[in-house]
Give the backbone structure.
Amino acid sequence: MTEAKVAPYGSWKSPITSDLIVSGAIGLNQPLIDGHNVYWIEMRPTEGGRNVVVKRDPGGVITDVTPPPFNARTRVHEYGGGDYTVRDGSVYFSNFADQRLYVIRAGAAAEAMTPVGEVRYAEPVIDEARGRLICVREDHTVADREAVNTLVTLKLEGNDNHGLVLVSGNDFYSSPRLSPDGTRLAWLTWNHPNMPWDSSELWIGTFDEDGLLATAERVAGGSDESIFQPEWSPDGLLYFVSDRSGWWNLHRLDQLGGIEPVWEIQAEFGMPQWGFGMSSYAFESAERIVGAYIESGVSRLAVIDTRTKKFELIGVAAVGTIADQIGESPFTDIRYVRAVPGQAVMRAASPTMPGSIVRLDLETKRFEVLRRSSNLEIDDDDISRPRVVEFSTEDGLTAYGFFYAPRNRDFRAPEGERAPLLVMSHGGPTAAATTALSLAIQYWTSRGIAVLDVNYGGSSGYGRAYRERLKDKWGIVDVDDCVNGARYLVEKNEVDGNRLMITGGSAGGYTTLCALTFRDVFRAGASHYGISDAEALEKDTHKFESRYSNGLIGPYPERRDIYYERSPINFTNRLSCPVIFFQGLEDKVVPPNQAVVMVEALRAKGIPVAYLPFEGEQHGFRQAKNIKRALDAELYFYSRVFGFLLADPVEPVVIENL
């Protein structure tokens, strides 16, 4: 074995280049099973971020279903999801460019199902007996008015489909689910100022002979209860995930309409419903559920007997510490679970395997990888594995994160040197960091830069009480937890307290800017389409998040003073370290002016600042060239700030005032 070279942290030559990361990497989500075929969506950065519906046949042949220029992506709630469905080989999908619904039948070209207009559709469900789709519709027809969300039906044949409204009156709808006999419909709904993970309701309606809902009643949910993913069992019982116990656990309605828990556990079957079509469990049969749940930030997979309520863990040690489980589980991040008799498919990942579409044989309990999000082969000795860290934070509480130490088989640091630390603050803020192999994280660790991926108070996966730590305290609790996580590692002598950086996107960008402005711990940072002005966001954002800040900061405009106090843009006099900004110019969630105003303020103050705007990008970067540019630019920025030499040249960035 070759002896490792001695080089300063940050200057290691890495086998994980930005070119390799983007060249073969794709996004994978929303797997579905139709007969003997498995479908999913691939997001392809090399095709400008186009979403492609693909099919894998029983022989293992993978083919594209949606040809260019079609882009299977809805803009309902702006974040989309629930972009397509399939039945008997016919694929129904939303097209990004015009937001119309299309169908591609076996061997045929795509046909438009809906007329041209300012209308969007999501989460289609096939009502075969009545020859129609049931889906969420978001109507933007009337300008200067908030979009109108409803549940509608659309005919399977023809293209003059303006839609027949089934359910209306509330601000938001999701998750329409048709009972096996077609007589009943279940759905979720919620109203401003709630987000679905704060308070949502589960309703059931009964169809009349005309296919309209004759009756409708709320059966679960309400104030301080969040419902996630209703599903009908094959024998007609309604199951759903509720956090009424303080944890998103699996429940069902009994024959008398009462609610009973299926499995009570201090773990989470639910997730924040940022997109449509999310699924943590599925019915293999009326007697068996395949379900994924999150415990202390780590996913587990289980098969649940619906009669006895007993469960069997799949591919994971039943005992041991969480750190042991990360090492022993085949997968530690599991989403989009689907099942049919004998098998389940899902998107799964582990600390050494990127997100993949996998199939589980329920008889043999063996997994088969159908498609990987990246075929980049990384030597095992170059992969930094996450270590769960628990650290003390404000008010005597504990917060969590995943620590990745620098790792590169060819290099070691000089004796006595401590690694720079990059703290990552996830978006949302109601979301979570996971243990899935992230090439973006390995990009840093393989160059000698440690990473702490923080699940600050407010993150999901740790119960409702942990999620609600951020209530009225966004910009405080999240910042404190990022700061205290960094300090914890400094105190443990694992990282260099003089080379602490923080980075984040969207809400994570807000946490980053607050940390850089209101605390004096980090020496540099990066904001990716981050929020700098909380009040401006309240005035200029899309419907889904237009009242989100009410629960995170306070009611607006009644507490405008708090919004002012929590906005970094108003306190640039307190910011004294370099910052780089990345921004999509078509971002409707966090408009570009949020970054521009901040950059101008730092420029005027003489603080080192860099700004990279990207044409054609929205909230989050999807194009390969821009993903590559953002990665390399952030590395270049830190190398100039901290003075370490890069092993490989990258395209320079204009840094003003440096």
